[in-house]
């Protein structure tokens, strides 16, 4: 899997590439990463990537041409590795106007071989770039941040976790919250008792069928109480 990221702040992605499981997966060659600064594809000495919006309004917009030329350069770079027929990349813009990022979408993205992520800045991106170059817009939540870099890293980390070999145990990703439509169950480690609080007895008995049943019941209860919206979807899906 290869990620190409279009960003005005390539250095931000060291948080992903130089720490944790995402760093280990990169070192192991489980995925590739390349950052592209659209300023390198501008046509003026000031490396202008933004301008005022037509019709007025606050802020600036990222311009079409630098972004389009960056995407073209990425496709050409991919074509250097593959035949031209396969030199395609799935282009995503991180945007609060996009569809919500879910575990189902993460699993779908994990099946792709090439993903290009555009990190917006300022007030947004010229709509002509989105209409002509972008496959989908994705949002990580109903809130606004200063740019697409943090949302991009969140999405990348979620996808990288599903790449075989990234996690130490093959069941780790399968048992995460949302993987089966439910929140995860509570977990405990040593000691058995701390500050008067004990680990549930069922987890100490070694009866795996009982443990599985307890964990599933906890997932149901936790989802029902904390995310009734997810629980309703879970009920509908399992009623089919």
UniProtKB/TrEMBL annotation:
Belongs to the RNA methyltransferase TrmD family. Its EC number is 2.1.1.228. This is tRNA (guanine-N(1)-)-methyltransferase. It is an enzyme of class 2 (transferase). Its main location: cytoplasm. Residues 1-232 form the tRNA methyltransferase TRMD/TRM10-type domain. One of its GO terms (cellular component) is cytosol. It catalyses: guanosine(37) in tRNA + S-adenosyl-L-methionine = N(1)-methylguanosine(37) in tRNA + S-adenosyl-L-homocysteine + H(+). Transmembrane segments: none annotated. GO terms for biological process: tRNA N1-guanine methylation. Keywords: Cytoplasm, Methyltransferase, S-adenosyl-L-methionine, Transferase, tRNA processing. It is found in: Cytoplasm. Homodimer. PANTHER family: TRNA (GUANINE-N(1)-)-METHYLTRANSFERASE (PTHR46417).
């Amino acid at each position: 899997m290869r990620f190409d990221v279009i960003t005005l702040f390539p250095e931000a992605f060291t948080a992903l590439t130089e720490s944790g499981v995402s760093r280990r997966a990169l070192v192991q060659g489980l995925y590739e990463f390349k950052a592209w600064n659209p300023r390198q594809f501008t046509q003026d000495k000031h490396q202008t990537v933004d301008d005022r919006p037509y019709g007025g309004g606050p802020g600036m917009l990222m311009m079409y041409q630098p972004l389009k030329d960056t995407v073209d350069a990425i496709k050409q770079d991919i074509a250097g590795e593959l035949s031209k027929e396969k030199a395609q990349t799935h282009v995503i813009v991180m945007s609060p106007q996009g569809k919500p990022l879910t575990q189902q979408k993460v699993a779908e993205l994990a099946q792709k071989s090439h993903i290009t992520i555009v990190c917006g800045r300022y007030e947004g991106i010229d709509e002509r770039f989105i209409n002509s170059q972008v496959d989908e817009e994705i949002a990580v939540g109903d809130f606004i941040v200063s740019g697409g870099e943090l949302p991009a890293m969140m999405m990348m980390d979620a996808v990288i976790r599903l790449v075989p070999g990234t996690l130490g145990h093959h069941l780790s990703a399968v048992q995460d919250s949302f993987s089966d439509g439910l929140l995860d169950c509570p977990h405990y480690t040593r000691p058995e008792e701390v500050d008067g609080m004990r680990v549930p007895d069922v987890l100490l008995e070694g009866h795996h069928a009982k443990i599985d049943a307890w964990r599933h019941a906890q997932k149901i209860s936790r989802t029902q109480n904390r995310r009734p919206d997810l629980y309703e979807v879970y009920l509908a899906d399992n009623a089919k």
